[in-house]
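ARCHIVE CARD
CATEGORY: sequence design from structure
SOURCE FIELD: tokenized fold
FIELD CONTENT:
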């Protein structure tokens, strides 16, 4: 079978599509295999951090994303007992970014923007209804096979990026362990157009509220708010998804409203896992295929886009610039390490802070947030960390 002179990408989520766009920018031919019949319209990630917006801007995607999204220059932490305990303004890092704000917009808008821009480029191909099911490789090519109707077909390319999400067939095919754990509770996201500003004084469009009984997270996106609650392990999925339960949960936020308009309710299982390696020969893992974490702090997709840029910059150096193969090992070394050090540790800490059950933990969190938001040096450090610039700096230092 002939080898196509292309980079194959499994998965047309935000990570696969950003990887495709950056390779095409370098004039490298790409084929994206997407299992679905079209781009996913699922509403999952909705936070784009400043560091990611800077990268998307270099590719020409930030402007249309910002035009349809909601700019959030501030975010805040509260506890149910104490009210606001810390508020942060991205203006404090305006010298480090062209986008000193979080952008709240759904991830599916990004993939649509990218497809629209790439679809007529001769170096870009996307094949829908192609679920990659198997992968094999030798010293100069990677061969993929497909599930379902395309089962008889195999295709060989030069390199493969597995951006096929948390259940990655590429990761399984390469026998790469997905180390970590699954939280006992699930997360419920309730979307409502209710105007929380009218009843919660001083509310920012991103607000994390700690409560030992039931913490929650309020996040505004265009046209609605998403409110996230933990669901205890002993509650059934049916009970958690019942309309009455969504109403009762929202009444914990605003007790005086009898009936909220609810647009969507979604229940998620939550994991903290990192693949044992991000590289196996000519195949790589990126995004959720390589790491998953709880959504508090909005780091999953953002970290995945950072993977996509790091990896494709190195692939371009090897494919176009004649850099040695070892250049690609730096992708695994840098991105895997910062996923563990920053994304995993920060998202676990975010969850533990919000659910703090003892008085000692609650006071520690309150004092830490107060100190960080009142001291300009600490505030800047904190903002650099949560907007993921610190992880990019650390990755670069890893060499
Ligand atoms: C409630 C919730 C809120 C979140 N909020 C945020 C947030 O605000 N910010 C943030 O950064 N992250 C957030 N995340 C995480 C974010 O959604 C993921 O990290 C992100 O979707 C990962 O992108 P991806 O491209 O790696 O994978 P996916 O988005 O899962 O895309 C994978 C693609 O691959 C396709 N595919 C799957 N298997 C195959 C196969 N075998 N062959 C070919 N194609 C295949 C799928 O159809 C899909 O199109 C949130 C997650 C949840 C659940």
């Amino acid at each position: 079978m002939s080898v196509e002179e292309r980079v194959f990408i499994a998965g047309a989520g935000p990570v696969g599509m950003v990887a495709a766009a950056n390779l095409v920018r370098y004039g490298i031919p790409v084929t994206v295999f997407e299992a679905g019949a079209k781009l996913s319209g699922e509403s999952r990630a909705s936070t784009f951090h400043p560091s990611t917006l800077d990268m998307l801007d270099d590719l020409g995607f930030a402007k249309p994303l910002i035009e349809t999204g909601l700019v959030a220059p501030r975010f805040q932490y509260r506890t149910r007992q104490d009210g606001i305990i810390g508020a942060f303004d991205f203006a404090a890092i305006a010298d480090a970014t062209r986008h000193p704000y979080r952008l709240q917009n759904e991830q599916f808008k990004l993939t649509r923007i990218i497809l629209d821009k790439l679809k007529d480029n001769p170096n870009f191909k996307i094949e829908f209804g192609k679920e990659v099911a198997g992968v094999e490789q030798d010293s100069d090519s990677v061969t993929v096979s497909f599930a379902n109707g395309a089962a008889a077909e195999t295709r060989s390319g030069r390199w493969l990026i597995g951006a096929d999400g948390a259940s990655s067939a590429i990761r399984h095919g390469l026998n790469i362990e997905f180390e970590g754990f699954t939280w006992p509770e699930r997360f419920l996201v309730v979307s409502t157009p209710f105007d929380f500003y009218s009843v919660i004084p001083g509310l920012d469009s991103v607000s994390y509220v700690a409560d030992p009984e039931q913490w929650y997270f309020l996040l505004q996106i265009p046209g609605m708010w998403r409110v996230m609650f933990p669901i205890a392990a002993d509650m059934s999925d049916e009970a958690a998804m019942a309309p009455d339960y969504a109403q009762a949960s929202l009444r914990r936020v605003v007790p005086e409203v009898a009936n909220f308009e609810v647009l969507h309710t979604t229940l998620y299982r939550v994991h903290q896992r990192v693949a044992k390696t991000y590289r196996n020969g000519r195949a790589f893992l990126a995004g959720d295929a390589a790491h998953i974490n709880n959504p508090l702090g909005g780091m999953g997709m953002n970290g995945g886009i950072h993977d996509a840029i790091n990896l494709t910059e190195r692939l371009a150096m090897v494919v176009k610039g004649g850099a040695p193969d070892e250049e690609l090992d730096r992708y695994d070394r840098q991105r895997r390490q910062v996923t563990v050090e920053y994304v995993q540790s920060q998202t676990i800490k975010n969850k533990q802070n919000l659910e703090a059950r003892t008085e000692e933990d609650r006071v520690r969190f309150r004092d830490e947030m107060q100190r960080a938001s009142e001291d300009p040096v600490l505030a800047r450090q904190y903002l650099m960390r949560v907007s993921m610039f610190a992880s990019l700096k650390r990755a670069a230092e890893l060499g």
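CARD ANNOTATION: The mean pLDDT is 96. DSSP finds twelve helices and 20 strands in the chain.
SHELF: design records, drawer C
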